[in-house]
Design brief:
It is built from 14 helices and 17 strands. The chain has a seven-stranded mixed beta sheet, sandwiched between helices. By secondary structure, the protein is an alpha/beta fold. Helix 4 runs antiparallel to helix 11, helix 5 runs parallel beside helix 11 and helix 13 packs across helix 14.
Length: 416
């Protein structure tokens, strides 16, 4: 028995599907301790949009550490934080005409979500939150309360209250008008629905199965929130930072959420960092009312600033992501047509793509076959029935083509 099996908790998961010991990462590749290379269509669950050990970001972090730059500072002012706030404002929010205060709630996406939920309740004086079917927002208790997955919810060990799920876009296969049930409950004094403080939504449900909300659905949701005095929270933890093309996944819908949650690739180099973006009039926190030890991970500020200035001064990365995403979509559609006897559902946006199968068993077999051929992919969805494709946004055309060839071979092996 190795040290992982003898010492590490049974809760470990990814390592069970990829039973090797990884040692190095470069760009879109991971290498095990024996030097075998694996093309990465996982990208740290979306935390490595700029690839492993991106040389530009690595140099910025190394230079900062070499000069003894502050690494830990809670919420004290630092040069690194100032540089990040200036880069984020000048390059990301101001050109998009978004007006947000930036809160550093802690290092993970769940921290950003917890802060958003707490603030929404403080601002409105209401307790209830509306979430959506198949949503995933994190593993802490507040985030779990607005998460759909029954296995993850069951791990809480206590009732998860003050949240009410509503159907996500196309949950009822387009047979019911958007928000019919939701709006009926809001307008009926006998419905039993507590007046909601906020609605929290992912524009593309990553862990839920790469379920994409249409732009018109998102606009309808934003309008519904305004008419009923509910705050709109967009969880952009996995789909933000360019994963769907534009920096924010909701840009194409033309909406401006009241609160936005960011993490994963905002840290740019795989370094933990999370932001909760707040409209200025909602920033009613008392000093220290919400805090945390690891709010100020300064090497993450350095990497994030460098990533913003390197990749977001123009629209080259956005256009590249959209084009590569279309390439993935074409391959998935062709596979679905090649095997009409094995129903497959290609879906996604940008470089967040999924190939849905009728069972988690089939999707799992495809991912195992891909691993045997040197490709890392995970499954998602309520029954793990979706093969999830999320490579680094910086993946080369040749690497993407190679990975898609392996994906196709793996599907053929399983479905032939």
């Amino acid at each position: 028995m190795n040290v992982f099996e003898s010492v590490e908790s049974e809760v470990r998961s990814y390592c069970r599907g990829w039973p090797v010991v990884f040692d190095r990462g470069v760009g879109a590749w991971l290498y095990d301790e024996d030097g075998n290379g694996y093309l990465d269509f996982f990208a740290g669950a979306g935390a490595l949009n700029y690839g492993h050990n991106n040389p530009v970001l690595k140099q910025a972090v190394v230079d900062y550490l070499q000069r003894d730059g502050v690494t830990h500072a809670l919420d004290m002012h630092t040069v690194a934080k100032r540089d990040f706030l200036e880069a984020f404002t000048e390059t990301i929010t101001r050109p998009r005409e978004y007006d947000y205060k930036v809160m550093f709630p802690g290092p993970a996406g769940a921290n950003a979500v917890e802060a958003a939920l707490k603030l929404a309740r403080k601002v409105t004086g209401r307790e209830s939150i509306i979430n959506f079917t198949n949503a995933f927002h994190g593993m802490t208790l507040g985030a779990l309360s607005v998460t759909g997955n029954s296995m993850k919810r069951g791990g809480a060990g206590i009732p998860l209250v003050h949240a009410t799920p509503m159907p996500f876009d196309n949950y009822l296969d387009g047979q019911v008008p958007d928000f019919l049930w939701f709006e009926r409950l809001l307008g009926d004094s006998g419905s039993g629905l507590n007046e909601p403080a906020a609605v929290i939504v992912e524009t593309v449900q990553g862990e839920g199965g790469i379920n994409v909300a249409r732009d018109e659905w998102l606009r309808g949701l934003a309008d519904l929130c305004k008419r009923h005095g509910m705050l709109l929270i967009v969880d952009d933890v996995q789909m933000g930072c360019g994963r769907t093309g534009p920096f924010f996944s909701f840009e194409s819908a033309g909406i401006e959420p009241d609160i936005v949650c960011l993490s994963k690739s905002i840290g740019a180099f795989g370094i933990p960092l999370a932001l909760t973006l707040i409209k200025p009039e909602l920033d009613v926190w008392e000093p220290g009312e919400h805090n945390g030890t690891f709010r100020g991970v300064n090497p993450a500020f350095v990497a994030a600033s460098e990533a913003i200035r390197t990749y977001w001064q123009d629209d080259k990365l956005e256009k590249s992501t959209l084009a590569k995403g279309e390439q993935v979509g074409r391959v998935m559609t062709a596979l679905a047509e090649e095997f009409p006897g094995t129903p497959m559902n290609p879906k996604g946006r940008g470089l967040a793509r999924g190939l849905g199968f009728q069972s988690g068993d089939l999707a799992g077999k495809v991912c195992r076959a891909a691993f045997e051929r040197g490709l890392l992919m995970e499954t998602s969805g309520p029954d793990d029935e979706v093969v999830k494709v999320m490579p680094p946004l910086t993946i080369t055309d040749d690497e993407l083509a190679k990975g898609l060839d392996i994906l196709a071979d793996s599907v053929r092996v399983v479905c032939a």
